[in-house]
Structure formats: C-alpha cells, structure tokens
Amino acid sequence: MAKPRTLFLLLFTFYYHSSSSSAAYTVGVNYGTVANNLPSPSQVASFLKTQTTIDRVKIFDTNPDILRAFANTGISVTVTVGNGDIPSLAKLPAAQSWISANILPFHPQTSIKYIAVGNEVLATSDKVLIAHTLPAMRALTSALELANITTIHVATPHSLGILSSSEPPSTGRFRKGYDQRIFAPFLDYHRKTKSPFMVNPYPYFGFKAETLNYALFKPNSGVFDAATGNNYTNMFDAQLDAVYSAMKRLGYGDVDIVVAETGWPSVGDPNQPGVSMENAISYNKNLVKHVNSGKGTPLMPNRTFETYVFSLFNENLKPSVSERNFGLFKPDLTPVYDVGILRNDKVISKTSSLLLLITRNKTSVEVINFSSLLFNGFN
C-alpha cells in the first residue's frame, strides 16, 4: 500500500510544478464577429476574465451587447466608428449625439479605453473619408470633454501602406504628399491629446520565402541597418521602427505607438506560402512574449507596446480560408493553440489530462488517468 501513496505524491508534485511554471502574459485581442457560430458576448466576457490573461479587447463597432457584457470585468474595450460614419461626425453636434448614444450608457461600468475612428482609412484612398477623419477625431474629443470624460482617447488605426519607404527601418517615411498635409496634423493632434498613433503591422503580409524566419521571430541572420548600426532579427521590430522613423522625421518621435492589429493565420488555402499551425504559433507566441518583455525595439528601447492580436476567434463568414483562421480560439472557446495567455490551471487541464505511469512491476505497464487520480484518489 505504500507504493501507490508514493506514486500519488510524485504525480501531484509534477502537476504543481507544471502549473506554477507556465508563463502567462497579458495582451489585447481584436474581437471580431463576422461569424454565425460565436458564443454570446456574456460568455466571451466571462471566459476572458476567468480563463485567460487577456486584459483588453478591440471591437469593430459599438455593439451594445458586447459593451454591456464587459461591464465590471476589468477588461478595457476599444470601440470603433465605422468608416462610413466618419463624415457625419466631423461636426460637434453629431459627435455629441454619437457619444450620448454609444458611450454614456456604458461608461464607466464598462472601461472604454479608446474610440477608433474608422479602420485603415487612408488605405481606402477615399478623399472624403480621409479629409473628414481628423475633424471627426477632434469633434469626438471635444464631445468627450463636454461630457466630462477624460479617460477615453480617440485615435485611428493605419495600415503600413502609409509608408513609402520602410527597409531598412531608418529610411521610414510617410507617403509623399501625405506627410506634411495629412500626418503632421494627425501627429500634432495625438501629441496634444496624449492619444496614441495606432498602426497595424503584419509581417504576414510582408514576408518573402527567404525572410519567413525573420517574420516569424525564428533564428535568422537579420537585416542590418547601416545608418543606425542596428541588426534586426524580427520583422515586427523593423516595421515599428520604420513607423517611428517616419514620425520622428516630422518631429513627432515622442508620440506613443499602439499596435492595433497583428497576427498570423493557422490554416490557409492549399499551398499558400507561410501559412501553417506551426507558423501561427511561432509568430503569435513569440510576439506576445516579445511585447511583454519591455525590451522595446532597437530605435525605441525599453518600451512595452500595447498590442492587440488579430484575432480572438476563427470567424467562419470571412471570405477566404486564411481570413477565417486568424483566431486564437474556436467558437466553442477551446484554444486553436496556446500563446501563453491561458491561466495556469487551464493550460494544465487541456494539455496534461493524461499521463502514462509505469509501475515497478516488471511484468506489466499500467495506464493511469491523471484526472481521476487527482480528484478521485487511488482505489
């Protein structure tokens, strides 16, 4: 009877050691809803709060059910003004009405952190949208001030298409004609309001066959920037430093940068380059670890960048296979893969539910179910 007790002690020690040593990082996620099989917002909010270390979500609208669900969770929310609504919000009365309808019913029970005005507006090349984006941001900021709300900042996410040059990072500059006319006023607004410049860096869209490891945070020889003497060993840092170089060129290197979107799909169309479960794990897991490290980038050392991974769920109504498979979680709330954001006990319950234990009996091998032993004891 002594041997089973000894065996149980060894088993319990293994369990305790594994759960206590599992790394857990905080990160934001983009909570998209282009799907017809997702759990309810209340289920999502409860899941994120109790079973993950995700502490920020970004949504692509102002869905009231989602905003209500995240009330009193401690998870902050970024809401989004649809691109088509931007022109109408360039005047203060309309902005005040928008704040009254979409922010005041939920604030402060729901911790709304940012209002994102549109998404990648400059990439649309729509002159009306582009011309009205900054006026809408200013009007919404004024409306928040008039409502005595000082904790919500207004910004707009940009694709890296805003850059005309990015390699090496020290050459980073905004597109000609957009720099002084568009981005200098944007950055001046951000400096004055202490709001961040939001960007969507996606190494997934920028890699070539020879730079795949560089894009995935895997070992590689790097890219040397002769102007600064920096050697870049991952594309994410290089993309952020290219944006920083463009900002600094205009005199706004002091404005904070927030990574509003970045990610890697786990499944793609047949023979689609670079798309696999292994690569998605490599990119997202190393990304989460990297942005939590506080190392920053070569041009922005010792900084922790607020980062929102794309995306929370696999969304089955997206148009292509890869677009449907950017999620960290399946609609049933099980992980597609783990990037270090599951709480420790959840990591163990999903990855170590069965152990094979070999007894000292030379003639037999006994398979013991870990869960039943732990919770029901030895019989």
Secondary-structure blueprint of this entry?
Elements (H helix, E strand, L loop, with lengths): L1 H20 L6 E3 L10 H11 L4 E3 L5 H6 L6 E6 L10 H11 L9 E6 L9 H20 L6 E3 L1 E3 L3 E3 L7 E2 L4 H15 L3 E4 L2 H4 L5 H4 L7 E3 L4 E3 L2 H15 L7 E6 L14 H16 L14 E3 L34 H8 L3 E2 L10 E2 L1 H7 L3
Describe the overall structure.
The protein contains twelve helices and 15 strands. With 379 residues, it is α/β, with parallel strands linked by helices. Strands 5-4-3-2-1-13-12-9-6 form a nine-stranded parallel beta sheet. It has a two-stranded antiparallel sheet with strand order 7-8. It starts with a helix and ends with a helix. The chain folds into two domains: 1-24 and 355-379, no CATH class; 25-354, Alpha-Beta Barrel (TIM Barrel). Helix 4 crosses helix 5. Helix content is 36%, strand content 14%. Helix 4 links the parallel strand 3 and strand 4 (112-117).
CATH class annotation of the largest domain:
Alpha Beta
Q: What's the helical proportion of residues?
A: 25-40%
Fold-level CATH name of the largest domain:
TIM Barrel
Q: So, the CATH homologous superfamily of the largest domain?
A: Glycosidases
Low-confidence stretches: 1-22, 346-379
Strand order of the largest sheet: 5-4-3-2-1-13-12-9-6
User: What series of H and E elements makes up the topology?
Assistant: HEHEHEHEHEEEEHEHHEEHEHEHEEH
How many runs of DSSP E, i.e. beta strands?
A: 15
Protein name: glucan endo-1,3-beta-D-glucosidase
Membrane topology: Lipid-anchor; GPI-anchor
GO molecular function: glucan endo-1,3-beta-D-glucosidase activity
Family: Belongs to the glycosyl hydrolase 17 family.
